[in-house]
Amino acid sequence: MAIKTYAVLLRGINVGGHKKVPMAELRTLLEGLGHGGVRTYLQSGNAVLTADHEDDASLAAEVRAAIEERFGFAVDALVRDHAYLKAVVDACPFPAADLEAKQLHVTYFSGPVDADRFASVEQQAFLPEEFRLGDRALYLYAPDGLGRSKLAEQLARPRLTKGLIATTRNWNTVTRLEEMTRG
């Protein structure tokens, strides 16, 4: 089995003083699981590591279980390899180079999403904000940023994400994780 480089995306940690996971402790935890090259990015739950897991889902389950055991609370985690992260960057339907990072976001999903899931969202009502679907991802253009986005609020409704883990990153983080997982 070949060793691959992965990004670990944790959902909802270190937000508003809840579910605190210090990054130094997260690195130690991941290294303790036998993973190499462990690095973290920002305080919002982004890590990069090398592992010889057969699939993203088993590695994510291992990380979730270890975090719950160590910190005492459940945290959703998604794991994606470099090839996937590069494909997400390359497939961006918006002119990323012409936008500020705060205007472009990617929501990563634990499974496939299709247009039917989001058919109830009347995109015209939210213009100039827009979204497009990708491979287990949703690209969101929010010109005034995520915090002021009415479309982001609508897209985060539980009925639209039912049965899936979903976690969002701004474009700077999307591209930085792709860079960190290279080689």
TrEMBL record:
Protein name in UniProt: DUF1697 domain-containing protein
InterPro entries: DUF1697
TM region positions: none
Name of one Pfam family that matches: DUF1697
PANTHER family: BLL4334 PROTEIN, DUF1697 DOMAIN-CONTAINING PROTEIN
SUPFAM superfamilies the record matches: SP0830-like (SSF160379)
